[in-house]
Amino acid sequence: MTSGIEGTVRAVSSNGEYSFTKPNRDSITLLPGLGVAGDVHAGVTVKHRSRVAQDPTQPNLRQVHLIHQELFDEVAEQGFEVAAGQLGENVTTQGIDLLGLPTGTLLRIGAEAVVEVTGLRNPCLQIDGFQGGLLKQVVGRAADGTIVRKAGIMSVVRTGGVIRPGDTITAELPEGPHRPLDRV
Is-above-0.70 flag for pTM? Predict the structure, then answer.
């Protein structure tokens, strides 16, 4: 993965029904404070089933899910075939180190859209249901024993707009001391 703070949108995906994967689209529209128009996870409060079961009133910090194409390339080396949208992400990126961004980073995507990075996706067992053994590829341990989550980042929509494959992504880092990403 490159360490750049610029990248490109490889694919966009959404699904109006609960399903692990999301079909690719020609474009998606981001709605401020809600997420992806027509996507089952859009809303002010949590929409992921496990989060709703815990507390349906908690804020939705997982409105837009981004994954880096480089993860798919990495797992392909281990024999797994994963295409854009198949891990449930809305935006598949290339050339930007999503996992290295600090909390609060603004991502300017395309002509108008802006999302704020809230944290790391916490991968669940459904990933192994999609392809057995894949969960171990997207969650591992660092040398010091800490858990490393590689299944993308979550964000909230600050400024709406249409996103298409080929759009540029530019990261604007927050001021002050940077807080590393944690699971949300």
Answer: yes
